Amino acid sequence: MTAALLATALPTFAFAQTPDDPAALRDAALKDEIAWDIVEGLTTEVGSRLAGTETEARARQWAVTKLTALGFSNVRIEEFQMPVWVRGEEMGSVVSPYPQNLALTALGNSASTGEQGLEGELIYFPTLEALKTASANSLHGKIVFLDHAMNRTQDGSSYEAFGPARFSGPSVAAQKGAAAIVIRSVGTDSHRNPHTGVTDFEKGVKPIPAAALSNPDADNLFRMVKRGQAIRLRLKLTPRPVGRRTSGNVIAEVPGSDPSAGVVVVAGHLDSWDLGTGAVDDGAGIAIVAAAAKRIMVSGTPRRTIRVLWAGAEEVGAYGGDAYAATHGGEKHALVMESDFGADRVWQIEFNFPKAASGLRDRLAAAVAPLGIGKGKGEANGGADINALIKKGASVVDLRQDGTRYFDLHHTPDDTLDKIDPEQLAQNVAAWTAVLAIAANAPDKLGNE
Amino acid sequence: MTAALLATALPTFAFAQTPDDPAALRDAALKDEIAWDIVEGLTTEVGSRLAGTETEARARQWAVTKLTALGFSNVRIEEFQMPVWVRGEEMGSVVSPYPQNLALTALGNSASTGEQGLEGELIYFPTLEALKTASANSLHGKIVFLDHAMNRTQDGSSYEAFGPARFSGPSVAAQKGAAAIVIRSVGTDSHRNPHTGVTDFEKGVKPIPAAALSNPDADNLFRMVKRGQAIRLRLKLTPRPVGRRTSGNVIAEVPGSDPSAGVVVVAGHLDSWDLGTGAVDDGAGIAIVAAAAKRIMVSGTPRRTIRVLWAGAEEVGAYGGDAYAATHGGEKHALVMESDFGADRVWQIEFNFPKAASGLRDRLAAAVAPLGIGKGKGEANGGADINALIKKGASVVDLRQDGTRYFDLHHTPDDTLDKIDPEQLAQNVAAWTAVLAIAANAPDKLGNE
């Protein structure tokens, strides 16, 4: 169902209620243009914004200007320091028996091959589990090709299933003596755009060069493997760590009327991977949460303060969320929410609420149901930028987005504005607006209030 | 309609006729695996094959081995010489006011910027016509950004409408004093994969650096243009001409029984652009024509010799077709056909036949109609590799493929095997088999017989 259809189907909601009624606010938001304006501006005027680099710093300045222009209060940057890794040159090829170039990209924290590059015999593993069971040192000097069989899932659960190929595959290969590793991209598209993302070398494991192949390249390499001859690969990857640098969170507020109430945090992350322009990850998320907060702002003063958190340095280790918690963890947080799963429509709402607030939970579910959003059976678990607050007792609402095509774009050069459907983006804003309109004013005790 | 549906719908054809009946051959070809085997092998074992380079030479050796193994007669390479241009480094970026990297690729025949690169102010033209009307020398030292509005068309006619932006835009910009030009890719996708292809600098015009932007990059640059500030671009492109080199045509035959009859040529091109693996352009085409010829071969001896022509150096100027005509133009050519528009289903048949052969035309149209192929109202016009033969009087049949998604892939890194639908590929083979089964045996006088 599209937002346009919903807008047509819901005139009774739009006309039967007062302007600052949650349902009316929700339906007006189906024509939202604020979120589009934010993500269009950020991707056009800043583009990619790797954490701790000059591009992320420009994004923070852009953010302060934009949030100030939107009328938010207490707009500020809260800086922090974090370790930075930057991409270098990257080239790969099959040397023999079928010489071909490979489209690949280094994973975050990959070691360098050095300027001279590296050549070795390929050893194939169909799964991370197969790699884990390889005998110690059997990979000595080899280049591992780690495959997997990720598929599309609406809820993104295939990322949990196949993401470990990227998260820990390189560390496992390094422990067993491999010279380098290439993995099939953790992604669901069929384009020559490899998916980057961090990989984590375990403490004490010396990092090796680690790259992701695009899916068509992984397909091609697997066809070569099936032919049975020994395969030699050549890699040149020259990324490097550049030490600790400055990142920062951008914060803006809609001040509440009740000084005894806890804060409502609505979060996304401002940084992006370096290959695309960070439209769906997470330009859309920060646009959605700010647009919804702005809509509450213009409708009147909420009881609770709504705090917009555009976190820095999420992609490379959620440093922004940790920095926020370190600074603000002592404050009362009633409710925390995050949007970091693209720009497609919300299809499910879930909660992590105190038992006493079950009435509020039902009101929220009813408020978003007309947008085609059902109530899930699980528990809300937030996102990377608010995890630390959840551990401290904040209540959570998840507005789960449709992730069916998210991993076509995730961490690739293809994460660009044209992938965002304005109608689905506006449906997100409508859902967030409805939840904020109710939750920011609710009398129920939430979180650690 | 898919080939699978057709196969289910047509049991009467398959069972009501003798095995070497055209309809039976056609229907059996709906389960063809020969074409897939050829294009899978070529893209896996050779990959990209730029004309006049070592990769194209490897492709010729691969082709001789494959066509010999398939049982064709007179399998041979006919070499020729042609000028070769090779890609170098390529990088582009917006310097100000919104610094961002651009995904671009040099057009064939582009000049080099030199190792030091080139910087200049952008000047925007929405169409080639607007560029043509710009005053002489008004572009002096500028970098032209030439935009256009290509859309999908089933018959590929939008390539004729918007292709000239690439074919002649750079020459027009050079004549008016531009330092360089970037064009929006002549393509219909939304991926960060720019479309290369030759550009033709007119005689006497000194080539300038010329590149294609991916569509998302062109979108982004246009959004910057709309903001109204002066934009500076930086380009580094280091392609170079490397002089005349060896290319060649690969030829294989199904010998006919009637020495007085003309030859039937079925053509595609073996070379590809360097960015992808040349799956749809034109691995699929050479696979389709050879698979159909093989199916005729095993069904018995045709009256006319069927000559498979896997032409070299088509992409860079149809040198292979010209070389074939120079060598074989004096022979009698009854019928010539080419497959060079991807791997999607055939939807239309057209003819360029002698008037006396109108009965044969109707038989051919009737033979392919059960495959969902209608008769067009225009005239067959062949393809680049057989144009010279058509000028000498050969008759032509076009089996027009559905080009709706062809320009998503054309001349990009994304031209890879996974884009081919095996069922649609087999429908092509079925159509070609039906036409060859009838036309190679027809008593009618065709071409210059």
From TrEMBL, chains A, B:
The Gene Ontology biological process terms listed for this entry are:
proteolysis
Q: Which InterPro entries match?
A: CPQ (IPR039866), Peptidase_M28 (IPR007484)
Cellular component GO terms, alphabetical: extracellular region; lysosome
**Record-given protein name:** Carboxypeptidase Q
Mind listing the UniProt keywords for this protein, alphabetically?
A: Carboxypeptidase, Endoplasmic reticulum, Glycoprotein, Golgi apparatus, Hydrolase, Lysosome, Metal-binding, Metalloprotease, Protease, Secreted, Signal, Zinc, Zymogen
One Pfam family it belongs to: Peptidase_M28
**Record's signal peptide:** 1-16
Gene3D superfamilies, from UniProt? Answer: 3.50.30.30, Zn peptidases (3.40.630.10)
The root-end lineage is: Bacteria, Pseudomonadati, Pseudomonadota, Alphaproteobacteria, Sphingomonadales
Its main subcellular localisation, reduced to a broad class, is endoplasmic reticulum
**Any idea where the Peptidase M28 domain is?**
249-433
Cellular compartment(s): Endoplasmic reticulum; Golgi apparatus; Lysosome; Secreted
Q: What residue ranges carry the coiled-coil annotation?
A: none
Which organism encodes this protein? Rhizorhapis suberifaciens (corky root of lettuce)
Keyword Ribosomal protein on this protein?
Answer: no
Oligomer and partners: Homodimer. The monomeric form is inactive while the homodimer is active.
A molecular function (GO) term: metallodipeptidase activity
